[in-house]
Specification:
mainly alpha, hpI Integrase, Chain A
Length: 293
């Protein structure tokens, strides 16, 4: 069998056809690249070409994965997607991932950056980084959404001003509209937005947007230089957490955060403990213990 470049254990034309099918279905370049990497890892761990792998090969591969439960689920999702495509394309008669035992996907609670820490970080931020912190902490944008934000999608003269988060600039291609506060609008104007194109230009003279990893890296480096053990993404968590505390509207928070699954949004309710604290304080207790306080 002709091996694909990069050791995917697939004929080059099969790999190309599979990745092209993902693009045709609207998958982002990042998702396509993740599938390519996942197939390369599988090919390195399975002793036969991927199209010839039997269920026992996939079971042994899954058993040998020394990663977190959520990562196991992610790897298996890539495998299932590839083999489902292979069956539909007539390259296999079965999907060897069907019936593979997998752990339950777990969702951690959001970890919002502290209010005082965020204010200090914004006040002391370099001019390049400051608007990134503002967009994450006051508009809930991800690093990718900041990097790919275009001037024509910043409607700062609309009533009310809004950000249009386009499908090609976000996770899962879920478009959304995010209102901008006067603070966010003012900060973006002070940052000096161009007339058109990407809001945040590269500093190396090259065309195109900043890479999302660079936005995240530079913002995180500034936060850590301020003595803040948090990340740019935790500024986004702050937006969702405070938004829920102010509105108690999970549906609204889901829409503004761009969550596909409402169970992801539900974690932001965990930090609104005003009612819970009052309820716990109201629990009856013996008089002697009350006096001892």
């Amino acid at each position: 069998m002709e091996a694909a470049p990069g050791g995917h254990g697939l004929p080059a034309h099969v790999l190309a056809a599979h990745l092209d099918s993902l693009r045709q279905r609207g998958q982002s370049p990042g998702s396509v690249a993740a599938r390519r990497r996942a197939l390369a890892r599988m090919a390195a761990a399975i002793p036969v070409p991927l199209l010839e792998a039997a269920p026992e090969h996939l079971a042994a591969w899954r058993q040998a994965l020394a990663v977190t439960s959520n990562t196991v689920v992610g790897y298996a999702s890539h495998a299932h997607g590839f083999y489902a495509w292979a069956v539909a394309a007539g390259l296999r008669e079965d999907n060897p991932v069907e019936g593979l035992p997998l752990p339950r996907l777990t969702r951690g609670l959001p970890r919002p950056v502290g209010e005082d820490a965020l204010m200090d970080a914004v006040i002391n931020a370099p001019l390049r980084v400051r608007p990134w912190l503002v967009l994450a902490g006051w508009a809930g944008l991800r690093a990718k959404e900041i990097a790919l934000l275009r001037r024509e999608r910043v409607l700062d003269t609309a009533t009310p001003p809004v950000l249009l988060i386009a499908a090609d600039a976000t996770k899962g291609r879920r478009e959304r509209v995010v209102p901008m506060s006067a603070f966010v609008t003012g900060e973006l104007r002070l940052a000096g937005m161009p007339r058109a194109g990407y809001v945040f230009r590269r500093c190396d003279g090259r065309q195109g947007p900043n890479q999302p990893w660079l936005v995240s890296h530079l913002a995180n480096r500034h936060l850590h230089a301020c003595g803040i053990a948090a990340t740019l993404h935790q500024c986004r968590h702050r937006f969702g957490t405070v938004l829920y505390q102010q509105t108690h509207d999970l549906r609204l928070v889901q829409e503004l955060m761009g969550h596909a699954d409402p169970s992801t949004t539900a974690g932001y309710a965990a930090y609104d403990r005003s009612g819970a604290a009052a309820a716990v304080e109201a629990l009856p207790a013996p008089a002697r213990l009350r006096e001892a306080r």
